[in-house]
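> example.struct
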């Protein structure tokens, strides 16, 4: 048992093994995935909180969504809004889940980029989501974990942004 625990610790705390595609180390992946676990238990609930926080921080972002005409105060009770929050969070969940499989991760991210390209979303919107997530996580995560999230989101949304920047 002791041996198993030290093997687990060895593989989850390595800081010298950056993935060739994502540059994330085992330690960074471990920090991001383990801090996502409590959020995973209520993806839609956290998604609603996150998107409401996004619109508070960047009110112009609401204009890029299908519920642009709904007053901010009514969003929290709208199932249409909840459904979108759920979509976003399940997509984030599949990103976090595939951090250890760089090739799968890039394919998921390019697909998200292509789908949002169709909706004429600009990269700045994804950077706003990143800033919102980091600020939201501040109350639940320590500095090392936040730094790992910052790096993971930078890498992930960088792939999305590249797709969004494509001409067609
Ligand atoms: C501010 C940034 C974002 C904007 C403006 C945006 C906008 C949109 C729009 C307009 C749609 C189409 C909705 C519809 O037709 O009903 C959509 C769908 C969707 N969004 Fe976003 N989105 C943003 C961020 C994200 C993020 C960060 C994720 C997850 C990583 C995400 C995941 C999805 C998914 C999974 C769908 C539904 C399926 C699809 O079209 O891929 N979105 N988004």
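> example.seq
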């Amino acid at each position: 048992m002791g041996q198993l625990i030290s093997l687990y610790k060895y593989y989850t705390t390595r800081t010298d093994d950056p993935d060739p595609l994502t540059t994330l180390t085992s330690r960074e992946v471990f920090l991001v995935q383990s801090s996502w676990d409590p959020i995973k238990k209520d993806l839609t609930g956290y998604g609603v909180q996150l998107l409401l926080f996004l619109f508070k921080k960047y009110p112009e972002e609401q204009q890029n969504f299908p519920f642009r005409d709904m007053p901010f105060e009514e969003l929290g009770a709208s199932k249409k809004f909840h459904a979108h929050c759920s979509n976003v969070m399940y997509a984030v969940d599949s990103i976090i889940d595939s951090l250890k499989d760089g090739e799968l991760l890039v394919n998921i991210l390019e697909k998200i980029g292509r789908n949002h390209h169709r909706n004429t979303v600009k990269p700045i919107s994804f950077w706003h989501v990143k800033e919102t997530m980091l600020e939201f996580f501040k109350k639940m995560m320590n500095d090392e974990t936040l730094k790992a999230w910052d790096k993971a989101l930078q890498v992930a949304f960088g792939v999305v942004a590249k797709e969004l920047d494509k001409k067609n």
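> remarks
The chain has a mean pLDDT of 95.
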